[in-house]
């Protein structure tokens, strides 16, 4: 529900909101298509259009404003008070040279704002601050899309008496004719791939989101008509649009007969209508026109949305439709709700419609984004946001009236009562891959389906995901659960937020396009696999047509969120051409090699212990384990090649700065004759000298094996390693395995003498935090103990979401399975500086944690004991462990995190990003000359860690991986934010697995490897990863 730019307008009209920590069907900003001027049109080069004050409509304002004597008189009572006016028409931003505000009666300073479609607020480039002393002020705005509104704001302090009168706004545009763009008619229709028999089937929805202004863009509509069989309107069927964007604090009313009784209803236009369908009907008529001309290629419509906490005017919940009056009671609200739903459906399906729209609508979102965490969205989700505002952010006025889910149940009752039986009824939500939120969504679905008189046919997975955090495994897990609960699922608002590393420039765009394409490929493969195995995945709708129109370009705090950074989330670019993401569905062999992300563990002592990566083609199989120390990179490479040739060799390439460009790489080659011979092949340990290595540093690296005259590479399939690191894998240096001493402590926030036996583990992976921290770990038969010291000059817990508050998070994976989604033993504990708890994980319960927090002169300390739930711990066992410090600023917003091992922030959804702790004996039992050094295995035990085990006598084995992706928008529903499930290998059949291997057990590893372990598959190049 977010068309987010496209679809969720901020002010309802222009707002949307995260996709990572929260989510929501974002307000689809009226997506304005780029205006086109054709060569045969005669227009002046420069055009000036003046809009007088009476032509400017207030969209939103928290300052005082009044239209008097033909001018808007504005009084600013507080700092940052402002007023936003909608223009009477949209203007293509690419043609705008300047916007001039004509003003008078100014007191104090004023700031100018220009809003693009979808903007909740104007960005910095389109804001001009603190102007005084003139009667005209001009700004030259920039950006793609359409200009839709202007605003005035003051930065003067409260009580300064600032004021101004707006007389008019003049927009100067360059109307030089432009050549109309064309689409690629010679490529396959995207919908054919989605609806093929080996994908989602011929009845599947292959849809997109569109906005009213986009239907004026003939080239964009050419894309819609060629590639999609369904559309969702971004804003035009939402309550605020049907109420004609009456965003004042009250509206005029009239009395009608409804269900045999008088009912007061609003009047929202000059004709006295209670609902204004003009915008929606203009779009519906466009689709009907196409369908009439192309009966064999009809496009259907998804109605979006009836009940939503956002983009519903606040006056709808008050007596006499006036915010200054009290809220109505539940009985009155029930009548209003039923009247509203019946009126919408009567317009399209009633007698007056005369069957004009029969068969056109395939489904309707009845309720949108009513879940936060594992429960219902209430009226106090974000304490800082007021329901008195026209747009109430994350809080629900529906809940404020009902104090229960009654309005949700009733919405589905009324929808069932008035909708045709062939129109499917949906619940739709974002953040749906979060484990905790999935529980809340399934509860809502169950509550609705079990209520008398309701109908809920399917669940809409909004699918606002992130390149940095998407997990196909997690997606599959939750999609299966939702389909079992609701009957079927559909992906309803698909887009991918760009990675945090995405920057401007052609090279960065090419890399990001490839990453995003592989995310789409993984998602599509997962959806096809679900369908093949009986899960009803009924369609995919992409949230927008062309790149510049995506809601993700604009900052928004609705529906999961968007930070306004550069994005490339859709299938087609601003020139209406197919991107690699399109080819991910149609022909994935056309994709560029994927830059894989690999982990290089710190080597402690002489034993190599790390993650094994394997790759192969039809004739050659190879695997390598990379580690690092202060002297450089160490790579243990094993090759299966039964035929000896003089040219057999293996080369490691390194780009120390990970420049991903033209380089003279650091490389080391070992010929087969110089390596150690093993049965069926050879192995070599290659040392690449390097300096200044540290945790979280990234380097580029690749491994190439020559089998006679044939090259096989891990990442660069184009074999350009000698001159370019463009296709090197991205290698991130991680901490090695730490040891935890056995000891028991009292949990009181004091560092007693037992803690002297523990090593302080520094947290050094900083993602924007302004703190420092370290943590110590101990263990005994009952508990894992943690003592964390955090230096933080500003402590704050005002954030409405627990993850936004200053706090420590401890992630525990008892069986060290390192899975891509949570197993039953995986836990996320959060403890803030005032010792308040929050949890994520089936066994992550209050009863399993005891903690104490103490504020210090420069921060805080937290001491905690976490009960073992799945293993009987003993010396030598390894567990997955991660620490994360959440850092809030004085406003209560989280500004960053500090972690030990995980640079992705994805510990809330998968244990594969955790570090590893080895349980050691009591300090008095340690032997100084023990061959087992910190972070290594004890050679005498033959300890070789296998996937999903912890080397314990309990017989713990790997649990089936669940799966779950997350939207990366700051989201109230997310246990934590972060990014990333890294894309899979370059070829469609590529694989990844996980396992840790030690040099002390290398022989065993080689035997297994040469026997073909993890080499299944028949693609030209296969890859896998085995993690500890």
From TrEMBL:
GO BP term, example: polysaccharide catabolic process
SMART domains, per database record: Glyco_10 (SM00633)
Keywords, ordered alphabetically: Carbohydrate metabolism, Glycosidase, Hydrolase, Membrane, Polysaccharide degradation, Signal, Transmembrane, Transmembrane helix
Segment forming the signal sequence: 1-21
Polar residues bias: start-end ranges: 938-959
Domain GH10: 206-588
GO-annotated molecular function: carbohydrate binding; endo-1,4-beta-xylanase activity
Domain of life: Bacteria
Gene3D superfamilies cross-referenced by the UniProt entry: 2.60.40.1190, Glycosidases
Segments traversing the membrane: 1001-1018
Enzyme Commission number(s) of this protein: 3.2.1.8
Catalysis: reaction(s): Endohydrolysis of (1->4)-beta-D-xylosidic linkages in xylans
Ranges where the record places region Disordered: 923-998
Cross-referenced Pfam families: CBM9_1 (PF06452), Glyco_hydro_10 (PF00331)
UniProt enzyme class: hydrolase
Comp. bias intervals (Basic and acidic residues): 923-936
UniProt xrefs under PANTHER family: ENDO-1,4-BETA-XYLANASE A, GLYCOSYL HYDROLASE
Family: Belongs to the glycosyl hydrolase 10 (cellulase F) family.
Protein name: Beta-xylanase
Organism: Agathobacter rectalis
UniProt lineage: Bacteria, Bacillati, Bacillota, Clostridia, Lachnospirales
